[in-house]
Amino acid sequence: MDRMRELVSLLNRASEAYYAKDEEIMSNFEYDRLYDELTELERELGVTLTDSPTVQVGYEAVDELPKERHESPMLSLAKTKSREELAEWLNGKEGLLSWKLDGLTIVLTYQDGALLKAVTRGNGEVGEVVTNNARVFRNVPISIPYQGELILRGEAVITYSGFEKINREIEDDQAKYKNPRNLCSGSVRQLDNRITAQRGVRFYAFSLVRADVDFHNSRTEQFAFLQRQGFDVVEHRLVTPEDILDNISYFEEKIQTCDVPSDGLVLTYEDMAYGASLGRTAKFPRDSIAFKWADELRETTLVGMEWSASRTGLINPVAIFEPVELEGTTVSRASVHNISIVRGLKLGIGDQITVYKANMIIPQIAENLTKSDSLEIPENCPVCGQPTRISQMNDVLTLMCDNPDCDAKKIKAFTLLVSRDALNVDGLSESTLEKFLARGFLHGFADLFRLERFREEITQMEGFGEKSWQNLSESLERARKTTLPRLLYGLGIENVGVANAKMLCRYFQYDLQALRDASVEELAQIDGVGGVIAQSIYDYFHREKTVEQLENLLGEVELEKQEADAEEQTLSGMSFVITGSLMHFENRNAMKEEIEKRGGKVTGSVTGKTVCLINNDTASQSSKNKKAKELGVRIISEEDFMGEYLQ
Questions:
Q1: Structural domain count of the chain
Q2: Are residues 392 and 474 in the same domain?
Q3: What's the pLDDT tens digit per position in 283-337?
Q4: What's this model's pTM, rounded to 2 decimal places?
Q5: Catalytic residue among 100, 357, 601, 624, which?
């Protein structure tokens, strides 16, 4: 009973995070495993708690949108991972097999041929009214031929390609969306449907609730009717107990390249009357069942742990195991992410482990069968050999290398210098820089402009040739002419980002020598700098090694003459935070540049000094919105910001 209560509490927290907050606190694999354990305990003990997820459906809708009760409850589906069980479930009858799409379920109502309302699934009993947003879905018809009352259900989704496009436009890694389902859920529940329209939401019908039409007792005819009304219908196939396994294989193969997110299949009786006669349980209808792809587990032996040093000093553990076949490919490595997970799994070399592919893509360790807990955490960095330390943040333990001269960090320094906001050198990816460093082509920053000495060797490198060299050479020549803010940012001075670099240059009238001569006290008095940043700037310009590197670099570049325009500094001393998608500016970088041009500053996190948080989704439950509300910082839309601050 104690374990049952523990599971109910844990699963309900996971469901609330997933459905009400668009967050994930555990993987689908872990949720399914714990759910199955709870179901078995309930069966064994003959007890089901009132708040058990096996009898409850979803959570209450959020308060930002009007609520409406569904005419008939929207139940969850019973599920199985057994293909043979699906064939048995058909009981000799025909069924309709279709995708189980991974988005947000919506109920659409049409009256006299016009879209009347759209309501989310919510908790199955009460949903949120999102009619205005549904009107801007990419493929929902505003009017249809059928003139009676028509009610249907379907899934709002954002494709993988659309999801990746939106994430590419978000530079802050922490602000990127975790998966298409979370992005879709937030997009459908916007208060401003202009944002919804930008997100490219699509709708796929999967069930007809009401229409005064004779469908000859056929679910297939219902789908054909919906297609004739202009709806995109979820892909489906008519199956029998004899051919259902072949049809499952068809979907299994197609999911590898399918652009629409799906987490399984749904099987429904073709005979509508028969399905209706079966009734329902407290939670599940009996005319349909969900099939979830079984995670393909393979048992193997952990043969090693590779500790991979990153550019930030973080050292990531990567498990090396005896090769196994998973989802059609051979895998032998899986990231373990951090020391907390290493210790949680109680790993040791030689342990028997089970591995799977999360979402059929990313290799992960599912379970450690041996649990020897004997793995040694390295006391020295695998790259530079200097001592490591264990860092703790939010209960997560990570391994760090603090050596500033670690070669792994050299890659970071060169990567920053050639990045778009610094010298903007095309053709020098991180992997190329790694190769150049390994071969001794690069020691200091100035060596970037002296690569001609190694031209012959470079053109003989794999993946390189004369054409690649010419492109790189031309890009480096263009990079020689740069601006002081770009150079200052590219130096990698601790705590000096793009905004601080521009602000410092304006303050010192684009005079680099004046900046280098400034005392800690003078720097600290600059609005937006403070003692910590002042000290790191001062230390950089007074450390023999960095001074020498800067002098050498200045001998290779030409700084454009710039002057500050005092009249344009209308946002001087003001700090802003930008998050989410924009409609008027091309991207967040463009808005950031406009603010900085006027003397303002854009930071990555909300603090008490933030003037306002710019977010077109003002009602979002994101961490930045919550922080702004907590600190009393205004949250305003892009348009309001432009009207108030950029006039």
A1: 5
A2: no
A3: 788 999 999 876 778 999 999 998 887 656 788 899 999 999 876 678 898 888 8
A4: 0.50
A5: 100
